[in-house]
Design goal:
By secondary structure, the protein is of the alpha/beta class. It is 29% helix and 19% strand. It folds into two domains: 281 residues, FAD/NAD(P)-binding domain, CATH 3.50.50; 143 residues, FAD/NAD(P)-binding domain (3-Layer(bba) Sandwich), CATH 3.50.50. Strands 1, 2, 3, 4, 5, 6, 17 and 18 form an eight-stranded mixed sheet that branches. The protein has a five-stranded parallel sheet with strand order 7-16-8-9-12, with no helix packed on it. Strand 20 and strand 21 form a beta hairpin. It is globular and about 70 Å long. The protein starts with 6 loop residues before the first strand and ends with a strand.
């Protein structure tokens, strides 16, 4: 360890909802010796990066916000990207987090120094920092995924991923191809359809989609929420209760599936009258197997005369368009990839070395095992937020994030109060937790999807199989018997 180098209580990597929540939790506990390393020039994570037209949350604003910081000023029931980013900035400013954030400091590597009980963290810019605990708050969805289509490098038009939107290109009068039809595409496609000459959506599989019924909040609504804060809490509670309905879709409950599949198909048939298009947009798998989407605008947009939905599959890309597996040549000026993110492996491409130089890559080579999705054996004082098996497919992930911030703060306090060198989860507890999660997954609808970002091979690696309340109970208190402690 470098002489006179400051040793922080914690280093947080990432300044999205997870990182900000973690920092606020530490400060509330009186822990002020920490840094937040952020690779970009601004905070915000997902809500900083995704600026495509129509970017919006698919969780109601009252629920997609911190429980400790209800906000009366939401413009819509389901908020747009700019206001969500502003909400995050507000939380950072209110809690004086700017003094802790180091911008344009991209995590490069880290190694645990067992003798000192500290992590040495290095950045790609050549800086080095030391901390008792290391907290990865980088999320699951930040590596844009672009399929390796043959010939894609030969395309002479403009091309980009939806998470890296090129706002300098005017799409007016352009022939546009959109590859993908999931969460991002259903938001930006309706926004660009009025401008483009033609739009072709290249769809691999149809998605189950429900009406969103978004609505604006007027000044009267906002004054009401500000005067009576309990109304926001009620909205949060009622939204969370309603989302319990979606939890049943993730299982094998035939009644709920039949009911909501009927709602989805009715929504589709109201907007789409063409029998051929209707067939293309009707899913052939059970509802809940992949992410259920919400939109009032997507189906009407696809029914426009200048829009085509192609389900033939992409054979290869040429310099002036796409050739499908059926042999059709579709000329294009712009190709937009709405193909999601590389969610696996977790901590993709990061050099993290724990005890005896064990790398996280090697530790997870056979199986990604964790305890509570937060800690992993052989990596002391190392914590993850929004880690393996902690994504909620039926409600707001912020419910999980706040629980994780609480649990990690408890661990860091435990280390500090007992003057421990480190705490390391026991392999047996980790294996038991992972085994129980995997067993429960066998009863979930996610196993019935051939392709999903939830899966790594046949293993459901991203999602939590239970409700958020169950996870809250598990993370409320640190079970010290699950850890080895070193003085």
């Amino acid at each position: 360890m470098a002489i006179n180098q400051k040793v922080y209580e914690a280093i947080i990597v990432g300044s999205g909802f997870s990182g900000i929540s973690m920092a606020i939790s530490l400060k509330k506990r009186g822990i002020h010796s920490f840094l937040i390393l952020e690779k970009a020039k601004d905070l915000g994570g997902t809500w900083r990066d995704n600026t495509y037209p129509g970017a919006q949350c698919d969780v109601p604003s009252a629920l997609y916000s911190y429980s400790f910081e209800p906000f009366a000023g939401w413009a819509k029931k389901w908020s747009d990207q700019p206001q969500i980013l502003d909400y995050l900035r507000f939380n950072a400013e209110k809690n004086d987090l700017q003094e802790h954030i180091l911008y344009e400091k991209e995590f490069s590597s880290s190694s645990f120094m067992e003798n000192e009980g500290c992590w040495e963290v290095k950045t790609k810019e050549g800086d080095a920092y030391t901390a008792k605990s290391l907290i990865m708050a980088i999320g699951q969805l930040h590596h844009p995924k672009i399929p390796d289509f043959k010939g894609k490098e030969t395309f002479k038009g403009n091309t980009w991923h939806s998470a890296q939107w090129n706002h300098e290109i005017d799409l007016k009068g352009k022939r546009v191809g959109v590859i993908g039809n999931a969460a991002s595409a259903i938001q930006f496609v309706p926004k660009i359809v009025p401008d483009v000459e033609s739009l072709t959506v290249f769809q691999r599989s149809a998605k189950w989609l429900l009406p969103k019924k978004n609505s604006l909040y007027n000044d009267k609504d906002r004054r009401w929420h500000q005067k009576y804060p309990f109304t926001l809490n009620w909205a949060r509670h009622s939204n969370n209760t309603f989302n319990g309905v979606f939890y049943h879709l993730m299982g094998q409950n035939k009644f709920w599936k039949k009911l909501w599949q009927g709602v989805s198909l009715s929504h589709l048939k109201k907007s789409v009258k063409d029998p051929e298009l209707l067939k293309k947009l009707t899913p052939d798998y059970p509802m809940g197997a992949v992410r259920v989407l919400l939109s009032d605008e997507y189906y009407p947009a696809l029914a426009k005369e200048n829009v085509q939905v192609n389900v033939d599959g992409i054979s290869y890309i040429t310099e002036d368009g796409i050739v499908t597996k059926s042999g059709d040549q579709i000329p294009l000026d712009v190709i937009i990839y709405a193909t999601g993110f590389e969610s696996n492996p977790f901590l993709k491409g990061l050099d993290i070395q724990g005890l005896n130089g064990l790398s996280i890559r090697n530790a997870w080579e056979q199986s990604t095992e964790t305890y509570l999705g937060i800690t992993t054996a052989g990596f002391p004082n190392f914590f993850m937020m929004f880690g393996p098996n902690t994504n909620l497919a039926h409600s707001s992930v912020l419910l999980m994030v706040e629980n994780q911030a609480h649990y990690i703060t408890e661990c860091i306090t435990l280390i500090s109060n007992n003057r421990l060198k480190y705490m390391d989860v026991k392999p047996d507890f980790q294996k038991k937790f992972t085994r129980q999660v995997n067993e429960r997954m066998k009863k979930k609808a996610w196993t019935q999807a051939k392709n999903s970002w939830y899966k790594d091979g046949d293993i459901i690696l991203n999602n939590w199989p239970g409700k958020a309340k169950e996870y809250q109970k598990l993370t409320k208190k640190v079970d010290q018997s699950a850890y080895t402690f070193c003085q």
